Amino acid sequence: MSSSPSCHSGKDLMRSAAASSGKSDVLEQYAKDYPVGPHDQPQSMCPAFGSLRVGLRMRRTATILSGSACCVYGLTFTSHFYGAKRSVGYVPFNSETLVTGKLFEDIREAVHALCKPEQYDAVVVINLCVPTASGVPLKLLPREIDGVRVIGIDVPGFGVPTHAEAKDVLAGAMLGYARREALEGPVQAPRGGRAKKPTVTLLGEVFPVDPVTIGRMLEPMELSAGPVVPTREWRELYAALDCAAVGALHPFYTASVRELEAAGRKVVGSAPVGYEGTAAWLEAIGEACGIARVKVEAAKNAVLPGLLGALAQKPIKARITLSGYEGSELLVARLLVESGATVPYVGTACPRTVWSEPDRQWLEARGVKVQYRASLEQDLAAFREHSPDLVIGTTPVVQVAKEAGTPGLYFTNLISARPLMGPAGAGSLAQVINASLANRPRFDAMRAFFEGVGTGAAAGVWEQPPKDRPEFRAQYAATLARAKKAEEAVGT
Ligand code: SF4
After folding, report:
1. Rounded Cα distance, 157 and 8, in Å
2. Is 266 within 8 Å of 259 (Cβ atoms)?
3. I need a labelling partner for 89 at 20 to 30 A (CA). Which of 73, 256, 356, 402 fits?
4. Which pLDDT value is given to residue 81?
5. How far is 372 from 352, CA to CA, in rounded Å?
């Protein structure tokens, strides 16, 4: 029997196990980079999915997971559900290999076998909860093998609160590695050669057309859009570091920002979303890059009238509550407000950072309640309090809204998978939202049709209508309470 911690051990035990296994420095850094609260557990998918996805989307990069088989199964399934075109590597373990240190040897062997320079630029190894808690020392892996970089990271659910921030764990580790390489000597140029104009690196996974739109907006300032971090290729990391300024479009890339600032780059928060957001962002970028006033004005004049026209042409007349875990929630809320919607509440699973401050201030000045690290309970309470015409949210929030006959849109699949920047963003958002609002009569018809067939435990087809038994529930609750008391008495 092993004394190693398991998935069911609870976060406190996992944390203290990880700390006593030599991971305190990693956990302390995560606690600083990704502060928790009001809830301190992920309420969405396994956070490691963020790191896995970043690795899987990069060319010539292999990704290996080290963790419990059930976690790896779930992560592999999700990555393929989201269209990964590559295999996920896995080094299995059992109690014995975990506690004797053989797992680390197995990982090292797997990494050596995989480091083929003709196939890969980098091999990423991700420690999930149990190997992190057990202190599997990925930092002892070789830094590179035959020219292939080896990146080992710990991404435990008890240390990284969201999958969004897990993207930053890997992106930051890669930027750090690339920055040290650039300091040591010449590095590879981007695939299409170095940019002719100074660039603005964009932080955050955005819809593919958004960087193109931003590039066009930057032209009058004689700037161009640089790579998007997380990058799609190792050599893009050097180009990302080699920029005039950074646009933190998504505000949770703390570790990546640390590396970009260490390279001497200024970081600008918010994003060119809506009329006022775009004007303020172009001003901030112009200032960060030392661009002459006249060119900043030219950039604004080139885009703002079109934006105003797009917003006026596609108004949104509705009360909407919004929540998500992608990091772009505040930006979407701004665009909704500028389109004419009433937005009483926006919740984001991400933490409050300086890079979303302009958006928070703008929204709060217009009466929007901004909730960072929003819990599912807070999102649902906002839905009940404000009786919106439309709910944009995570799966469980949208499910509750639809059950109540309110149209709902999934933030991740339907909102963050569309352009957001410039006139294209305004038009596209209004289109999907107005189409969904028009569905209300269908919800009413469905509710009327299914009225009286039962809900909750009574839903379904029955020979006899199910009878609620509250006395059984009370009995079990009392038994559980007695068992807990007895357990506590033994523990004291
Ligand atoms: S790695 Fe941790 S957070 Fe992820 S599924 Fe496994 S136990 Fe849960």
Report:
1. 12
2. no
3. 256
4. 87
5. 6
Beta bridge partners of 175: none
pLDDT value for 336: 96
Residue 20 confidence (pLDDT)? 81
In short, whether 316's Cβ falls inside 6 Å of ligand 1 is no
Domains of the chain in sequence order: 11-161 (3.40.50.1980), 199-309 (3.40.50.1980), 314-446 (3.40.50.1980)
Atom nearest to 67 CA in ligand 1: 1
Instruction: Give the position, in ligand 1's atom list, of the atom nearest the Cα of 48.
Output: 4
Beta strands 144-145 and 148-154, pairing class? antiparallel
Task: Give the number of the atom of ligand 1 that is nearest the alpha carbon of residue 155.
Answer: 1
- Asked if residue 67 has its Cβ within 6 Å of ligand 1, the reply is yes
Q: Is 46 in the pocket of ligand 1 (CB under 6 A)?
A: yes
State the alpha helices, DSSP H only, in 115-162.
Answer: 129-133
In which residue are the tokens 């650039």 written? 182
How far apart, in whole angstroms, are the C-alpha atoms of residue 309 and residue 292? Answer: 27
Residues of the chain with pLDDT under 70: 1-10, 37-42, 491-492
- Ligand 1 centroid from CA 259, angstroms: 27
Q: What is the pLDDT, as a whole number, of residue 2?
A: 40
The reply to whether the predicted model has a pTM over 0.85 is yes
Give CA angle at 457 (454, 463), nearest 5°.
Answer: 65
Q: 436-454 burial, b if ≥16 CB within 10 A, otherwise e?
A: bbeeeeebeeeeeeeeeee
